[in-house]
Amino acid sequence: MGAGHGHRLHFHGHSVVHRAPAHLKVLALLAFVLVVVATPRDWYAAYAVHLAVLVGVIVAARVPFGYLLPRMVIEVPFLLFAGLIPFIAEGPRVAVPMPGGWELSLSESGLVAAWGLAVKGTLGVLASLTLAATTEPTDVLRGLQRLHVPDLLVQIMSFMVRYLDVVTGDLGRMVTAMRSRGVDPRSPRHWPALARTLGALFVRSYERGERVHLAMLSRGYDGRLPDPEPTAGAAR
């Protein structure tokens, strides 16, 4: 279980952003997210500035936008939720003309809330993906240690990074087995079978975690993990 697991988000490069110390990049990401969250929803020009700063960092990192954009699919559930807000929010409503001569009645406050949720979420996700694309997972963990993040949290994140590919592989094999038996996970008719599969995956992952913990205890684990081998980014 090497430290290179979880590298699917990392884009290999040698730019100034890649070479920057990991703990400084984590602090920069935290500051950026806090500024974005604190920006009032109706300060539209400020969001253009936030986006320009983020695009500048991505260009300096030489990470193709075509590499980052497909990975933003993780944001889709939040965007769908944001899209529902104008329909269910209360307050003054505005009529939006639609093709065919009919109109959509949308809440004005809901539109503003949906805009705020979508733009803040998009900027946050894009900034996080930029950090992941320019920093090896082990460097991020070392950066968190340098920032004196509680060791238990760092260990949890370390195991998440190490075993993400393992759990994803298990899920892929279980879905393949479902399809071989004629079950389509995308069909609502078969969602009960999918739910049972996800439950089995949870139990299997929990039991694997128990076995790994017992193995660590048998090898003298005392609550602290040995330092991983330093990488080029972490050595700075």
Which tags fit this structure?
ECF_CbiQ; 236 residues; 9 helices; 4% strand; mainly alpha; 2 domains; disordered N terminus; ABC/ECF_trnsptr_transmembrane; single chain; transmembrane; two-stranded antiparallel ribbon
**% residues in beta strands:** under 5%
Radius of gyration: 22 Å
Sheet with the most strands? 2 strands, antiparallel
Q: Give the H and E element order.
A: HHHHHEEHHHH
Estimated structural class: mainly alpha
The structural domain count equals: 2
In DSSP terms (H or I, runs of 4 or more residues), the helix count works out at 9
How would you sum up this structure in a few lines?
It contains nine helices and two strands, in the order H-H-H-H-H-E-E-H-H-H-H.
Would you write up a description of this structure?
This protein is mainly alpha-helical and 236 residues long. It has 2 domains: 22-137, no CATH class; 150-219, no CATH class. Helix content is 64%, strand content 4%. The protein has 9 helices and 2 strands. The chain has helices at 16-19, 22-38, 44-61, 65-68, 76-88, 108-134, 137-146, 151-180, 191-218, and strands at residues 93-97, 103-107. It has a two-stranded antiparallel ribbon. Helix 8 (151-180) crosses helix 9. The protein is globular. It starts with 15 loop residues before the first helix and ends in an 18-residue tail after the last helix. The relative contact order is 0.14.
